[in-house]
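Example A, followed by Example B.
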Amino acid sequence: MSKKFDVVVIGGGPAGYVAAIRCAQLGLSTACIDKWLNKENKPVFGGTCLNVGCIPSKALLDSSHKYEEAKEKFGLHGIAVGEVSMDIGVMLKRKEQIVKNLTMGVATLFKANGVTPLEGKGKLLAGKKVEFTDHAGNTEVIEASNVIIATGSVPVNIPPAPLSGNIVVDSTGALEFTEVPKRLGVIGAGVIGLELGSVWGRLGSEVVVLEAQDNFLHLVDQTVAKEAQKLFTKQGMDIRVSARVTGTELKENSVVVTFQDSEGEKSEEFDKLIVAVGRRPFTEGLLAGDSGVNMDERGFIHVDETCLTDAPGVWAVGDVVRGPMLAHKASEEGVMVAERIAGHKAQLNYDVIPSVIYTHPEIAWVGKTEDQLKAAGEKYNVGMFPFAANGRAMASADTDGFVKIIADAETDRILGASVIGPNAGDLCQQMVIAMEFGSSAEDIGMMVFSHPTVSEAVHEAALAVNNQAIHKANRRTKK
């Protein structure tokens, strides 16, 4: 007799394992299938994010930032440390331990909530049946009242730069360099490319970023993007926009990259090359022909606003469906679907999903950018406040960047916010909360913010929307 569950989740990343836990909490018998094997060839849950994505990259970002701070900034505080060195092996070991702790944490949470872990591959068949194949190759068919697809995404590979050993790598390979490359090339100036480039740049690499788009960070508010490009360039990152890679040639211990820019064809030689041109949905071997689930031309599974697919009782969440490929978006979709399966009226507000780039300074944004509002012909007011005028940022010697808040010109309702600077991700989250509750800029301006904190920059930017900032000169208005 085949097993039967109320819910079978295919995929154990931030979308899948969170959905499975919430389903179990709601009293639904739940199984979660995942095929991930770690370096020791042991099954682990957590998906790309925990194993080779969000978490290990942030561990390296933090280690490299502390190294750079000790080397370049401690003297500002009168701290003398002598010659500073970095043990790459220790840094990588720390990263691995953090990953291990978190993946073990998922296993513990499954056990605590009664989720049945199934280690192997899942394939959706017709009638909400799932073919499960374990790592030994044994196959069985599992029945479910509901199926949640959460198979995530994988890096995009491009023909001009095929991956090759430890010379030409994707984001996963870039987490495993055992020594600092003298010259590092990065194809793609998106979130992943900038974060990984900054890790190795801080540790001493000469980093060249090749971006095919004409505008740097074209999806980010361009006021912020221009500031970011200026600061990253000051840090030593060589960012080249309108640079389309046309080919690569491997040498014994290096790679020559050919690219086309506004001046014609050029080439550069690098010790390592990171290909970070985006990610695509992972659906290989996932769907039987008669499963009833449809995909669009880009490979994303088609879902409605509640993440229900075209097949009754089959849902899909996370990177495998439309919307930004963000772990937090994926997790909240997993929770929403679990709640709906249990009969609750849950929904997700896709208008207030924040994005963060964990460089230093951090970059974060939510809602509409000024460029989008201008293109749509909407009337708006803008308030900005620089961290250079913030007392806590000065005390921390971390004054790069600013907060920017945009509000509707008539209603004063906050339409979007961007932050580049210290703790940008956390500061932007304040605006996410404000926007979720329909706050106006005046609402934020009337709140009491602790002093001295960097969050006072949010307060001042909100005041500046209506020309009422206290700690900077306001724009002049016509009488």
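Example B, a separate protein, is given below in the same form.
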Amino acid sequence: MSNILIVEDEQVIRDAVSKLLKRNGYEVATADSVEAAMENHELSDFQLLIVDIRLPGKPGTDLISLASPVPVLIMTSYASVSSAVEAMKQGAADYIAKPFDHEELLVLIEQILRQKRKERAHQALQQDVAENWPTDGMIGKSPPMQAVFQNIQKVAPTTASVLILGESGTGKELVARAIHAHSPRREAPFVAVNCAAIPENLVESELFGHVKGAYTGADQARTGLIQSADGGTLFLDEIAELPLSIQARLLRVLQDGELRRVGSEKTLHLDVRILAATNRNLQQMVDQGDFRNDLFFRLQVVELKLPALRERGDDLQLLADHLLHKTCKRLNRSDMQFSAEARESLRAYHWPGNVRELENAIERAAILSDSEQVTTAALGIPQPNAAQAETTDDHLSLEDYFRKFVLEHQDHVTETELARQLGISRKTLWQKRQRLGIPRPGQQESG
């Protein structure tokens, strides 16, 4: 729902335009001068300003720069070419001459808002590298992945919240982007947020934004990530890491489409589709009181479970060949091939870090290899001996495998290298150590 500010000193016109817009589904606020608009409103809360060019005090055109990047539609009683051209030169989105036809105004507003949505979507796309997010070329012929593809097709056209489950590195964000890319919101922004990567004391401000002076150091207003996704899709990765207080505020966005910035008493109305992902057991966290039950059920309208790489059969080789080709292209070197021994090593390895770990191993091999053939040594993945092979890997749980892998390798590599081999971040490695009670070398396990 678009929020529009009308800045007009003539009350009759101000009220008439306000009623017109409200009847047509817009949220509307008003002011009678530039000064009043600045004092009583956060200009960044709006999707459009409709401003009279002649106002008491400062001219309406001052709001063009003050509100940027929010578009400004100029109204003028003086339908002169000079005033319109000057306003457009200063950055006005368009202008309309009074008296104007109501339908003409509504059409112009919709054109401006549609153009702004396209610009936002284009900016979001520019930040992406299509090759890294091939939403139309997700690879997988195994039955589990075919089921995922079918579910993406079913859920993408809807507005339903989706909870994407899977181990670290299975491609949860790629699935979220595929859902967005095949949805009616595909021309609007896709905003991805790693909840675990934001310091706890900044989570609220980052997600919900803040007004100027909301806290020490808040020198200017800030638009939160949720509002940045208005009209589009918000992807909350590692949602299990959100503090309970933030979960309560997020629930309100999901339930009512309402958001309030930190330090503000004003409620904003948003249209955001929320997709969330986690590698943790949310039901268990609910039972333990670490995750809100009501938020869990709001997120779990549709649940997509991604298979681990070791569960995808021949997809492993398809992915490996695709990733090797993509990596060689990016590194500007001729195509490489896996040796027979390397292919066997790929199949034998458990891949606790899933596709992300596979991609890291292949990139390292492409960089370090001196020939056009990738060897087992270049891949650098651990090779089980015969005795280990009989006991492991298919019979171990993921947590048991993680414990075994860490204990076997932590004395020989750094935490950074250990995390890289597992295909996870150092922070995730630390969290798993804490949860499973695996102290780092030289530390005593807390008792």
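On Example B: The chain has a mean pLDDT of 85.
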